[in-house]
Amino acid sequence: MNYSQAIKHNKIVSTYASASFGAVIGAIVAIAAAAFVNSVKYFAELRKTFSGNFLTLERVSIDLTLTGFITGAAILILLIRRVFDIPRWYGPADTIYAAHQDVEPLDLRAGLASTLVALISACGAASVGQYGPLVHFGATAGAGLKKLFFVPMSSNVVIGCGVAAAISAGFNAPIAGIIFAHEAVLRHFSPKAMAPIATSAIVAAAMVNYVFQLPHPLTLRGEAPALIEAFLPIILASVMFGLVAVIFMISLRKFAVINKNWGLKPYQSLSIAVCAVVIIGSFVPNALGLGTDALVSLLNTPQDLSFIATLLLAKIILTSICLGFGFFGGVFSPALLVGAASGALLAKAFEPVVASSLTAALTLAGMASVAACVVGAPLATVFIVLELTLSYEFTLITLLAVIVSQVVSSNIFGHSFFDRQLMDRGIDLRFGRNQLSLNQTTVAGYATCDYIATPTNGTAQEVMTELRKKAQTEAYCLTYDGNFVGKITINQLLDAPPEKPVSAFLDRSPLTLNETHSMHEAIEIASSFVGESIPVVSKETGKMLGVLTEADLFAAYLKIQDNIRAVER
């Protein structure tokens, strides 16, 4: 017995082995997170060093430093696209999809290239996020290590380890990372997956804290108001947070559709995005990049109403243009800033009637609510707030806001932005792994050759004899090349002249399936079928491939159910 089989058959050894593998993934993702954060920070400082170079055209001043950085980033992205020959970039939506099935695994090459492009976009000051690329990198790294070392762990657990490590390292929030992996990506709780995923998150947080010593991503000063005082304003504001999240997600999708409809080449799309970054960034520099400094400022310092409103509008538009027209990155970081700005804006509106202590609470609640709606992880977002603030009162207020806003957003837009991305590709996760597996399993693999075939000149008596011999009630008429002609039943043969060819009275248009039909489609078709079996006929050649009985369909369905139960146990 080799080491893989030994690990697989010994539960204690398997638990320790999977936890060790989770620790390796956590360490790798922590290194990537540190490299990502420090690189973006370095280039942000570099831009500040060379700032002050402006080109004034009439009343408009163009930041030449920003223009150079964002143009350089666009050129590098075009080079990477050419070198890797990738038609699109890969992100959290692909991670979620990969965790729900094994037919289409993660593309390691595309995943690494996408993470690199996201890093370049953020370093160039494009309005993109870091957490989505890190999540996909973590999943990709885990899948790559599993493939390289033949680790006997299911793919979804490996993906969960990478995702948990990414959120843990990005926010310094290991508990939130664990919950995010189960809530937003795996979408089930599996006891056997808990050890490796938790280990991965804890190791990532430990390395970020003690090895790389990255600063806390967010800081919040001030005390939370009493829940009874904040209850009504938070309820009212949360409805608006849900609507803001919907507007943000619709904007992201609309700009991507515009780019697609225009049929632009990659360099043309990126040129538009570069112009948008230069123009908007020259007027609203706080809308550029990850937006971490602007977010901290909103959470801790009272801001002018016009500044908040301008930042909110600029961040939505600029992020939509950047992601829709060629740059790549996450939506979590922009959603945090959009949410915080909407919370700060509503705090200004409530100032005449509520206490000033609500400003920080509304800003924090807005940040968490919009982000939770966009990524589809309400519980994980609440735990991010808990681990960042260590405040039970702030967490309760945030929980209330997230619940209300999630109800508004999910009923108008859907579960999350990533789910809508998958639905645009014809992948619907609302019905879980069961239907997805049925849709990915074709009938060709379950068709059997247990049927009676007769040539077109076969007689009724010959076919009847075969039916009696094999205790069947249906036969299929085929040409000498094996092409399907029609179907004949025992009822049609009872009154037929014994010597007459079956081609004279067979059913030439019976219910059929082809090799492209999924098991889900076959079950729907068979729900109104009456008979012994359904022929499976090649869509291209017309050849008879086999038959499917209702028993075959039940067996396939039960097998898929057993596989899903094994994954989720």
Automatic annotation (TrEMBL):
InterPro entries with a match to the protein in the record: CBS_dom, CBS_dom_sf, Cl-channel_core, ClC, ClC-type_chloride_channel
Database matches in CDD domains: Voltage_gated_ClC
Main location: membrane
Keywords carried by this UniProt record: CBS domain, Chloride, Chloride channel, Ion channel, Ion transport, Membrane, Transmembrane, Transmembrane helix, Transport
Gene3D superfamilies, per database record: CBS-domain (3.10.580.10), Clc chloride channel (1.10.3080.10)
Membrane topology: Multi-pass membrane protein
Chain ranges of the CBS domain: 506-563
Keyword Nucleus: no
Localisation per UniProt entry: Membrane
GO cellular component: chloride channel complex
Biological classification of the source: Bacteria, Pseudomonadati, Pseudomonadota, Alphaproteobacteria, Rhodobacterales
Alphabetized GO MF terms: chloride channel activity
Regions crossing the membrane: 12-40, 60-80, 116-137, 157-181, 193-212, 224-250, 270-288, 308-341, 353-386, 392-413
Recorded coiled-coil stretches: none
Organism: Celeribacter marinus
The protein's name: Voltage-gated chloride channel family protein
